[in-house]
Amino acid sequence: MELKAFKIQDLFSVEGRVGLVTGGGSGIGLMITKALVANGAKVYIASRRDTSELAQQLTQAGPGTCIALSADLTSKANCEALAKELSSRESHLDFLVNNSGVTVVDDFMDYPDDAWDKNFGLNVKAPFNLTMASEGNHSRVIIVSSIAGFHGGKGQNQPAYNTSKAAANHLVKILGSNLVSHKVNIVGLAPGVFPSEMSNPMIADKAVHDKVTSSIPMGRLGDELDMGGTVVWLLSRAGAYIHGSVVVIDGGRLLFV
Known about the structure:
This protein is of the alpha/beta class. 41% of the residues lie in helices and 16% in strands.
């Protein structure tokens, strides 16, 4: 192989690629969207809220483009409808980033039963349903999970979230083993603590922020460049041989949780 094949502009390029990021208008999803658009990708973002103005702003910044779609992924029918909408717009998707998620924090000893359905519905069923609904229409799938799926979550009071993320981590292996013959690449991404709507209420308290930060060997929370750079790597040629594994991006926090 010639040396030019190893040049960064080719090896890590996502220019011209087309795909979907669910929950791509806020938090970790927005970090991912920004990185892809900044590197020339065409990104559809699906959300229950109106993100059309945000999509226009990202497109203006370019060089890639961003298109907002309205979607509620809490049912199989809705996932299939979103996949159908994308198929009507694009002949093929290069990537699908299943990022939408939810948590319910409540009294651990009296945890609400419906919280389990809510967490598993969006954190596990939706990635499965959307991946299967659009199977054959994309080549690379990322399931955004969490390091919460690897530890006991003592004191977090969100047992359904932690358990659903453990299930999402395993879903990567299940889809990876069953879809490999369909030439679909599956990889999981388990972030630690990043600024987002989900984590902001926790880290807004300085004492809690300092405690969390002190538990991270790298001494800080994750940021946009950490997340964006990792996803660009995974969706580029450089990350093409990673399949059926969950990539942890947490600054080393999982070592001490």
